[in-house]
Design brief:
This protein is of the alpha+beta class. Helices cover about 40% and strands about 10% of the residues. Strand 1 and strand 2 form a beta hairpin.
């Protein structure tokens, strides 16, 4: 695997708000992933509630989905490092 493709796959596990590996990853209804604390704090100071990546607006804040499969893959990747 080339270093470029390896870097892109590592980016899949980085929160675009804190720029660190996900902690308690959740997904917004538009499908973007963030740390639960990061997106919660982002929405506390940014109204209307919208996705920081695609700017889709949400009417409710409680629409975050815990991605258990994603958490499992993240755990496997971190353990293999």
């Amino acid at each position: 695997m080339s270093s470029g493709s390896n870097l892109r796959s590592e980016d899949q596990f980085v929160c675009s708000i804190c720029l660190d590996v996900f902690t308690d990853p959740v997904s917004t209804p538009c499908g973007h992933n963030f740390c639960k604390a990061c997106i919660t704090h982002y929405w506390e100071v940014n109204v209307p509630y919208k996705c920081p990546l695609c700017t889709e607006i949400f009417k409710k804040v409680g629409l975050l989905e815990v991605r258990r499969e994603f958490c499992f893959v993240l755990m496997l990747v971190l353990l293999s490092c």
